[in-house]
Amino acid sequence: MTKQEVMYKVKSMRRWYVGYQVSAGFLFAAAFTVALGTLLFFLLSCSVTWLWVVLLIAFILYIIYTRPWRINEYSILNFLDRHYPELEESGNLLLKSDDELNLLERLQQTKIREQFAAIPVQQKQFLKPLKQAALILISVALVCFVLIKVVPHDLHQIGFTGLHQSGTKNTPIEKLLPQIAAVEVSMSPPAYTGKPTRTQDKLTIDAEEGAVVSWKISTNIPVKQLALLFNYKERVSLTALNHDRIVWGARKKISQPGFYQVSIDGKLSDLYQVQVIKDQPPVVRIKTPKPYTYIDAGEAQKINIDAAVTDDYGINNALIVATVAKGSGEAVKFKEYKLDFSTSFNGHSPQYNLQKLINLPSLNMEPGDELYFYIQATDTHQQQSRTDVYTVSIQDTAQLLSMDGILTGTDQKPEFFRSERQIILDAEKLLKDKDSISTEKFKSRSNDLGTDQKLLRLRYGKFLGEESENDMGGNENDAVSDINNYGNADVIKDKYTDKHDNAEDADFFDPLLKNQLKATLTEMWKAELQLRLYKPQNALPFAYKALRLLKDLQQKSRLYVAKTAFNPPPLKLEKRLSGDLTKVNQPIIKQNIKPGVDQLVSLRKAVEILEQLKSGGGLSSKDLQVLALTNQQLSLQASAEPRIYLAALSAMRRILSDRSNIKPDDITRVEKAIQKTLTPAKRMPVAMQNPVDMGLSQEYYKNLNQLNR
To answer: What residues form DSSP beta bridges with 274?
Structure first.
């Protein structure tokens, strides 16, 4: 074979391999799609039209996972070398030109070309993935075909939907009286919900709070009287809508949850649930700003409010209630503003994203003033909710640079505070003189201010135990450097150890002050950096913040101790140091704790009676009284939470009405409801009883176990 013939044959093998892999991927994707479609058909009764999308996605994922395009001609030859020994693992020589081969490789190439001509193009090993995919597809198709033929098509209605209704909503299957032919219940939600009137053919009601419910019940025979009994208390009579007294109707406004029964000529039906959907108040969430915002000097005196307001039915209005505080002490004044958002709420949408940019000077705010605001939202049912109060404060530079706190307060290092203030004043003066001085002088003065800031930072660093630049070199008067003290451990310990017993070396700063002092040093670092870079304008915010932290430290150092006076009683010298304690009585606290009346004692006894019924016991007259009281307790619970307790109340009614045929499921359902109702008993204090040996045996075994370890 020539080289062109070899190349053509290898490429043909590659095409067959890629074709088999793609076909196998399609069959695997088809098997997955058939299985998924059958499962969803039984559970959700879904249409099969969208399964083509699933087939395409599964096929693409398989192709991406296997990547058949990575197989090249050399991979095919390596495959042939492994499965055909006559090629002598020299298949790669067939694709090389004669110029790339030496004498031995040429002889080997000529030898294996004759062996390569006898190898078929279609390899059986290429068909293995395709056969596996076809087998899996046939198996899945047969199983799904058997399930569709054997299992009823409405399995999802019997199993899945019924499980969802009974497990999630806990609503049993409705049982109507034999006289009822048809039922039509219409529910008209309140106007604020914006929902239309809906109609159903079930007696179980799940309506909005304040909805008007209309019943239209048709009977198969004429009846004399038809009524609805709500929670065993309220009775609503239905009116005959025709002369044959077959169609009856009534209306009622639903405001409370509970249950009701249908009464036809004195015969009561099962219990039907009445669930009320409460209108939730609106929820307001402020995204920006933070709960406390501080505007430094030089920053824009504006605040952007970004909030989200949501409600279940709709938002009617939302506004910002802002209060501006001016002054200090007893001269403080407050003024309230109500600011509207630039959003129309006429659509009563359930969700709004609100934004408002407030210009603080427009509210007559000045440096030193504070703004307190909150957002108040009102829904379509006139329910209101509000957020927490947010605070915005503007820095008062005049107060910050004043000397009142220095003159009146106690300060260990007052010159430190004046130095930071002087740096700020000099930096502002430098900015004013920038246009009237040369660039070299401007840089020189800025660098000098950076040096002053550095010296101030180093002096404050001593309070935190930081090393100064003077400590970097040796000291001639250092005792450790003296040759006469060589090997003297006391001298070394005196220099390099902390002397906690010495009052002068003790640290009087608590952790909170230390952290604030560290933050001050950080701001000084930043201010010094900008001054070294000849940018005093950028250094001012850091210097202002450092000064504000320092003044805050100054205020925290103030202590106020109220003056108190105490006049001790005169001592009786005749009793002093006598040790007479006869008139000193030990305090004794005695309290009689009486257990309260247990209102749920009937429920506790009912559990015991139900357990006896499980074992085949009978019911006495006292047991019937206890179960009747339990029925009343469950009816009260079902009136408040019908979704949880209505099924148990129906089971209790069946137990009381048919005592000869009590089902274990009804007993279990009632017991679970009673366990939810019962509250754990309060533990009362009791006298402790010490063992006879005073706990010596426990101590003995405890020590013995420790020795064995």
So the answer is: 205, 258
* The pairing of beta strand 272-277 with beta strand 283-288: unpaired
pLDDT of 156: 41
Furthest-apart CA pair in the chain: how many Å? Answer: 135
- Convert 193-214 into a string of H (helix), E (strand) and C (coil): HCCCCEEECCCCEEEECCEEEE
Q: Which residues contact 568 (CB under 8 A, 6 or more apart)?
A: none
Give the whole-angstrom CA distance, residue 309 versus residue 353. Answer: 7
Alpha carbon dihedral 650, 654, 655, 657, in 10-degree steps, equals: 130
Q: Within its chain, how far is the Cα of 76 from the centroid?
A: 55
CB 203 within 8 A of CB 185: yes
In total, the chain counts a number of residues equal to: 709
Contact 396, 367 (CB under 8 A): yes
pLDDT tens for each residue of 165-177: 333 344 456 788 8
CA distances from 383 to 48, 316, 376 (A): 46, 9, 10
Q: Which residues are paired to 370 by β-bridges?
A: 325, 393
Q: How far is CA 393 from CA 302, 389, 593, in A?
A: 11, 13, 55
Q: Which residues contact 433 (CB under 8 A, 6 or more apart)?
A: 442
What residues contact residue 38 under an 8 Å CB cut-off, 6+ apart? 144, 147, 148
Torsion angle of alpha carbons 208, 210, 212, 218, nearest 10°?
A: 60
Exposure of 68 by Cβ count < 10 A (0-12 exposed, 13-18 middle, 19+ buried)? middle
Q: How far apart are CA 301 and CA 364, in angstroms?
A: 11
Q: Is pLDDT larger for residue 46 or for residue 316?
A: 316
Q: Where are the beta strands (DSSP E) in 61-192?
A: 180-188
189/146 Cα distance (integer angstroms):
47
Q: Do 174-277 and 289-396 come out as alike in CATH topology?
A: yes
pLDDT at residue 309 tops 90: yes
For residue 456, the model assigns a pLDDT of: 85
CA distance 210 to 133: 60
Tokens 């004046």 sit on residue = 418
User: What ranges do the domains of the chain cover?
Assistant: 3-150, 174-277, 289-396, 411-469+506-556, 601-677
Angle at which helices 601-614 and 621-640 cross, to 10°: 120
The yes or no reply on domain 411-469+506-556 and CATH 1.10.10 is: no
Q: Is 195 exposed, middle or buried (0-12, 13-18, 19+ CB in 10 A)?
A: middle
User: What CATH number is given for 289-396 in this structure?
Assistant: 2.60.40.640
470: DSSP letter: G
Which amino acid type is present at position 690? N
> For the whole prediction, is pTM greater than 0.70?
no
Give the C-alpha separation, 645 to 643, whole Å. 6
Residue whose structure tokens are 């040759």: 483
Assign domain 174-277 one CATH number from 2.40.350, 3.90.660, 2.60.40, 2.20.28: 2.60.40
Q: How far apart are CA 117 and CA 64, in angstroms?
A: 34
SS3 274: strand
- Check: CB of residue 388 under 8 Å from CB of residue 374: yes
Listed residue (400, 528, 398) closest to 457, CA to CA: 528
- Tokens matching residue 130: 């395709």
Alpha-carbon dihedral sign for residues 176, 178, 179, 183? positive
Cα separation of 87 and 85, whole Å?
Answer: 5
Mean pLDDT confidence for 225-232: 90
Residue 416 in tokens: 């430190």
Q: Which residues contact 425 (CB under 8 A, 6 or more apart)?
A: 401
Spatial separation of the C-alpha atoms in residues 538 and 645, rounded to whole Å: 69
